[in-house]
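Tokens as discussed.
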């Protein structure tokens, strides 16, 4: 009996080993080396000391944290608010849900091309809307004061995932709770803030976790729109590692990958503790 069970698990074990376990071991092992593909030499913590002393690395860490904050503080709260409104079955809620979900299934590359036209300094829609109002024409993606905000503006309004998770969680809340609150004279605002929001804790924590882990490795949007410029104002940790790979500094790049991995692990622990994800309400 154990033979067939082990045999059925074999494909999953092979796939997990090839695409996760082996790359992870290589990442850990080579992050402490000077590796250029042909040569490999152990250098201890030199790669990490070099990262700590590189002002560009400090800048890309700040940029990555900025994008993570944009996801957590704008995208998730906005998506939860829209999800709560749509869950009340307002007229046309199915159409709104579908329209708002479409951007979530568009690839990052296609999304970047759309926004490259939107932000175009000469014929982009944004300048065409703002200039008639008396505001100056700007190159949103290549001015240091606006570039990072312009990048964040491309993804913080992709609300589809958060909306769907929120609505699914609301659908599981017992209707008796709302009926009891209505009998007690609770207003709509009180029902949403004192029943719905507290019971969305797990869903909100899951959305925060998913968005943080998705955006910590952000690459395609930034690479296509600005390639990290101007003056590394929009560069991310993933783009920084990519540049190191192009320069043949594979060990240095894997040290950046290890930093991303550790940062992601710390975020998982922090979010799980903050939202008590997976725990039942007492």
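Sequence:
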């Amino acid at each position: 009996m154990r033979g067939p069970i082990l045999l059925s698990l074999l494909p999953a074990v092979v796939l997990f080993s090839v695409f996760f376990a082996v790359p992870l071991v290589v990442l850990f092992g080579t992050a402490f080396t000077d590796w250029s593909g042909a040569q490999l030499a152990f250098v201890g913590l030199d790669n990490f000391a070099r990262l700590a002393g590189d002002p560009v690395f400090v800048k890309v860490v700040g940029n990555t944290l900025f994008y993570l904050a944009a996801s957590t503080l704008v995208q998730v709260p906005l998506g939860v608010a829209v999800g709560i409104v749509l869950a009340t079955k307002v007229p046309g809620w199915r159409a709104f849900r579908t329209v708002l979900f479409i951007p979530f299934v568009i690839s990052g590359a296609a999304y970047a091309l759309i926004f490259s036209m939107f932000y175009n300094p000469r014929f982009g829609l944004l300048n065409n809307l703002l200039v008639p109002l008396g505001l100056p024409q700007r190159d949103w993606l290549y001015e240091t004061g606006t570039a990072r905000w312009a990048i964040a503006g491309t993804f913080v309004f992709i609300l589809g995932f958060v909306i769907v998770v929120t609505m699914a969680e609301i659908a599981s809340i017992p209707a008796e709770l709302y009926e009891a609150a209505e009998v007690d004279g609770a207003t709509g605002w009180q029902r949403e803030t004192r029943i719905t929001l507290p019971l969305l804790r797990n869903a909100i924590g899951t959305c925060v976790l998913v968005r943080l882990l998705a955006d910590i490795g952000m690459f395609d949007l930034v690479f296509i729109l600005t390639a990290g410029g101007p003056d590394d104002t929009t560069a991310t940790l993933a783009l920084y590692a990519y540049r190191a790979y192009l320069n043949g500094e594979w060990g240095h790049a894997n040290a950046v990958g290890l930093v991303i991995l550790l940062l992601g692990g710390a975020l998982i622990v922090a979010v799980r503790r903050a939202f008590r994800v997976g725990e039942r309400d007492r």
